[in-house]
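Hey team,

Filing this mostly as a record. A colleague (T.K.) asked me to run one chain through the structure pipeline before their review meeting, and I want the input and output archived in the tracker in case anyone asks later how it was produced. No errors, nothing strange. Just documentation.

Input sequence:
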Amino acid sequence: MTVTYTSRVATARFGGFSQLLLLWRGSIYKLLYRELLLFLAAYLGLSLAYRFLLSEEQKRLFEKLVLYCDKSANLIPVSFVLGFYVALVLERWWGQFRSVPAPDGLMVAVAGNVHGADARGRILRRTLMRYGSLAALLVLRAVSTAVYKRFPTTDHLVEAGFLTREERRRLEGLRSPYNKFWVPCAWFGALAGQARREGRVRDDCALKLLMEELNRFRGHCSLLFHYDWISVPLVYTQVVTIAVYTFFVTCLIGRQFLDPAQGYAGHELDLGVPVFTLLQFFFYVGWLKVAEQLINPFGEDDDDFETNTLIDRNFQVSMLAVDELYGEVPALERDRYWDAASPRAPYTAAAAPLRQPPFRGSAFDVALAKEDMQFQPLEDIGETLDPPPRPPPGAFTQRFSLLRRKNSAGSEGAPPGDGDSLGGDTAILLGDAAGGDSSPQDHWLLPPSVDDMV
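Output structure:
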């Protein structure tokens, strides 16, 4: 199903993407050609009726309708509504791909923490991974039509080896109307606890790791099931679909070529076939079709996920990891670069031109003149954070006298020369004013107006 073209565009070159335009499987042409032919046939039918079937009076009425529809079509915000919708669907599509459960982490945890080379250890590991594969299969069977066609009943699961007859009896005997993909996860946890009691899982940390990987795997199964359950709100899908199709129904009339002899603005040329309207239909309706295909990637479209291939791969790999490869470690040997102080892997003749020097930072190659690289004495540079200078002797007395004169002249009802009446303007010198020792950090606190006056 999935159309893979990544290798064709691995290297960007002139006309690289143009090669993809000739592909048919998974292409926009295959997805859209029926709608495009229907739109073109309807447009040409109206055009022929206008030219050969209508009377002169009917033509004038039709021309007014064309002008009205052409003006009104611009009121439908197709690109705005459609753009947000496709962005939402694409984000959802990527989230569904990331939520497909993969058993790799679980199988590594089982192979490394459930010990025993005897038959008991082997059956424990294989059963644990079979439970994981069964949980994923029950979810995929519920969301993918391709998987359901492959395993339509639990009898098929028994025949395929994912379930035993006893397990099927227990699974079907559990009275619950909901999807039972979580049941194999519960069996996995119970069996892992039993293996711990038997000493096959040697400590609680190993059991904890097994349960963490199980919960991560179960979380992916649950998320995938909820993606299938909670769809994009139907009202949003309806709004977008109605907007797109209403726009092009309006264009069927509004984009008709009119008789140039009538002198209508914008209708000086009669091409017969609306080339740019067809391109607009191709882009907008094609965009809507892309969203239609991506909104549920578990169907049978060309670009839907290969769920059956995923089941085959995951089941086989997980069984190999916990059984055939259990305890199998290749003999330890000194590697080729054992005595090399600076090991470097070789290049073939084809790959040698691709070799690049190591990256050491974007500022590494900055060039400086020799004189600019000499350190300068600190006394020649100067300090930018020097403390403020200490006020000269007598500055406080002079400043305070100015304030007294100003307050005496500007305060109503205050006797002239009354030093105790300062009104609203005050000056405080921290340090000397308090009779203490002043330090270089002492400074004046003055109202802005007094500062400006002085």
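Quick notes for T.K.: The CA atoms of residues 37 and 451 lie 83 Å apart. The beta strands are 428-429, 444-445.
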